[in-house]
Structures are given as C-alpha cells and as structure tokens.
Amino acid sequence: MCKDCGCSLPRHSAIQQGHDHHTGHSHEHSHKHQELHTNPQLNDKKTLSVIHKILDKNDVEAAHNRAHFEAHHITAFNLMSSPGSGKTTLLEHLKEYTKLNYAVIEGDLETSRDADRLIAKGITAHQIQTGSACHLDAFMVHGALHHLPLEGLDICFVENVGNLVCPASYDVGTHKNIVLLSVPEGDDKIEKYPVMFRRADLVLITKCDLLPYFDFSVDEAKAQLKKLNPDTQILEVSIKNGDSMHAVAAWLNENLRRNTVGEPQ
Amino acid sequence: MHEYSIVSALIEQCEQHARANQATKITRVAIKLGVMSGVEPTLLQTAFETFKLDGICREAELSMTLQPLVIKCADCQQESVLDERSIVCPACNSYHTRVLEGEDMLLMQLEMEQAEDI
Ligand SMILES: Nc1nc2c(ncn2[C@@H]2O[C@H](COP(=O)(O)OP(=O)(O)OP(=O)(O)O)[C@@H](O)[C@H]2O)c(=O)[nH]1
Ligand SMILES: [Mg+2]
Ligand SMILES: [Zn+2]
Ligand SMILES: [Zn+2]
Ligand SMILES: [Zn+2]
Ligand SMILES: [Zn+2]
C-alpha cells in the first residue's frame, strides 16, 4: 500500500517482481540484476560482498508506477531531450492527429509554463516542480500520478526535464522511451550522449522544416544511432508537416501495450 | 548533476547493510560503474566525499571500478570488450549483439568495523 496517499497497489521488492508485464530497455536491465542479487555474505569479519543495483529503490517505485498505469490499461511514454527540442510543442499538436486519449506529467525546473500551455489546448496535464533537480525519478512521477484522472486514458506521457544526461539513468515507470533531437542541435549529439540514445525506443528528429538551414545529416544521425541501438526507429518530424505528425501518431498506436502484448482493451 | 542523487541512494544502502551487520563504521565502499551507466566517475567521487560526512560512511574510502562495455554476438558467438561506445561486433560487424556488461551501477563490496563481542 502507498502510505502517503493510500493507493492500494502493492510494492514488490526487486526480487519478487514478475517477468511478464514489462517491456522496454530499463526492464531488461533490472531482470538481469535480479540474477545477480545474491544473498549478502560476511566473508570475514569485515568484508561484506553484495551485488546490489544502486538505484534499486527507484526501480521498485518505477515498477509500482507501471502497475498503476497497467491497472488502467494505459501505456506510458517517457519523453526526453535537451531543453527546447520540442517536447511540449509536439504534445500540444499531437491532439490534432490522434484519437487516442492522452494526459501529460510535466517535469520542469521552476515554472508550470509547460503544463499551462497544454491545459490551454484542452490536454490534461500535471506539473511536477522539480526545483533544482536535473531529472525526474520514479518517486516524483508517483506523486504526480495521484493528481491525474487516469480513467479512460490510452496514453500517459512523462515530459522529462530538458537534459540529455541525467534522465537516462532513471526508470520513471513508463513503458517506452522517446528521445527527441532537434535539427538545430546538430547530428553529432547521438555520439556525444550515447547513454540516452541507447535507451531510446524511438528517436524523433524534430524541427525538420529547418533542415535546409542547418548542416544536419539525417543519414549520419541514423548511422550513429544504428551503432548504439540498431533496433530503434527514427522518424523525421516537423509540427508544420501533417504527414510527419501522423507518422508519430501511428507509431504510438502500434506501440500501445494492448497492441504489443495483447492486453485486453 | 544526478550524481548527488545516486550517492544518496548509495549511502542509504550502505547504512542498511551496516545496521543489518551491527557495524559501527564503514571503511570502504566498492562500486562498479559501467561506462554506459550514465554517471561521471569524478562527479560521483566528489558527491561521495561531500555526502559521506554526516553518516556511517564518514571515514569510508570509495573505490570505483570502471566496467567497459562487453557484448556477445548472436551471429559469430564472439564475446568482445569494446573501447568504443558502440554495440557492433568487432569480429564480424554484426549489429545482432547483446550487451553483457557496462550499463550498470552496482554496489559490490563493503568493508566495515563491527562492535566488539556481538
Ligand atoms: N520550426 C520549428 N520549430 C519548432 C518545432 N517544434 C518546436 N519548435 C519550437 O521550438 C521551441 C521550443 O519548443 P518546446 O516545445 O518548448 O521545447 P521543449 O522540449 O518542451 O523545451 P523544455 O521543456 O524547456 O525542455 C519553441 O519555440 C517551438 O515553437 C518544429 O517542428 N519546427
Ligand atoms: Mg517543455
Ligand atoms: Zn501508488
Ligand atoms: Zn500512492
Ligand atoms: Zn544530473
Ligand atoms: Zn560477431
């Protein structure tokens, strides 16, 4: 049980977690570690050998968040990118291209500006004010879950703090990671931030209407990504190009849990 | 600087182990950091030196092992240790590989002093 808010979903320790209800990279990781999770042993009087994931508490909370989403048949996507790559803009415009019902958990440093922008478009959003934090963790997202009406949602997006480093280390309890890279940032960012791009299930090259003005090679970006993460898809997107937005909507639809793991609707 | 949050999770784990073993002091904390774990070792070291001061790790030394990326190729079965941040098999250039090590952040070992005569 959630002590703070009384929600009725149990938290499983990392060892008890089932293997069946998870997808996404971060999950494969935690499963691997469970095998390593040996019983601590005092070798001699002083040396204790443990093999323990440092962020395992966060991972237990992330699994709990996923249980919240799954109890409502929601698929959750973690949106990550540098500041200003177009996360909020994408979410503002997506509504015009999909019938799927979605809400947004917003991570922002100081203001509720992004949530206000979404709410102004009629999209349900809750802002987590992360203060000085450079990433969201599973506990922050859990706090926000209780401020969102989950009933009837198909998708919950988590818009992470704009940062290509820190958010990559934290499973926040979403099912898939979407990483945005905007054309003005340059095609070398995949190579410079390999951990983030390795965790991506989808990479969106955003602001593609600006391609004529920048030396950004989409082929180079694809080649770099393939070296790190060969199974990941890349979509070229511009909010000014309806077809590209429809392609994002189609990817989301194909990647709903009910379409990938056969969850009942 | 998520290294600070990572260190506070690490110190919390150390404190739990210390309690479970009736330790009075932790003298060494050994961790293994994957090169693709997303943590900067020097920042982590600084964060540890700052945070350890108020607790059981006060006098602990942090020893870090950097774990390079290790992959296994599904096509040629070769296991390789990579210098590059890529998961391509250096033996046969296949993309069909699995990462075995190099993406984790693990607490490996603790050295502690226990109260006498327990
Ligand atoms: N030309 C062009 N501009 C875009 C596009 N998408 C977003 N922008 C602009 O990029 C700027 C930043 O967009 P945001 O949506 O606020 O970016 P964000 O990733 O949410 O930023 P943070 O939340 O601060 O990290 C805005 O001025 C958008 O209008 C696009 O497809 N084309
Ligand atoms: Mg935003
Ligand atoms: Zn809960
Ligand atoms: Zn709760
Ligand atoms: Zn950070
Ligand atoms: Zn090979």
UniProtKB/TrEMBL annotation, chain A:
Keyword Cytoplasm: no
Domain named CobW/HypB/UreG nucleotide-binding: residues: 78-235
Record key words, sorted: GTP-binding, Hydrolase, Metal-binding, Nickel, Nucleotide-binding, Zinc
Entries under CDD domains matching the protein: HypB (cd05390)
Listed InterPro entries: CobW/HypB/UreG_nucleotide-bd (IPR003495), Hyd_mat_HypB (IPR004392), P-loop_NTPase (IPR027417)
Positions of region (Disordered): 16-43
Ranges of compositional bias, category Basic and acidic residues: 18-27
Pfam families: cobW
Keyword DNA damage assigned: no
Sequence similarity: Belongs to the SIMIBI class G3E GTPase family. HypB/HupM subfamily.
Protein name per Swiss-Prot or TrEMBL: Hydrogenase maturation factor HypB
Source organism (scientific name): Shewanella cutis
Native organism taxonomy: Bacteria, Pseudomonadati, Pseudomonadota, Gammaproteobacteria, Alteromonadales
UniProtKB/TrEMBL annotation, chain B:
Keyword match Metal-binding: yes
Residues that coordinate or bind Zn(2+): 73, 76, 89, 92
Superkingdom to which the source organism belongs: Bacteria
Protein name: Hydrogenase maturation factor HypA
Purpose of the protein: Involved in the maturation of [NiFe] hydrogenases. Required for nickel insertion into the metal center of the hydrogenase.
Protein family membership: Belongs to the HypA/HybF family.
Binding site for Ni(2+): 2
Organism (species): Shewanella cutis
Keywords, ordered alphabetically: Metal-binding, Nickel, Zinc
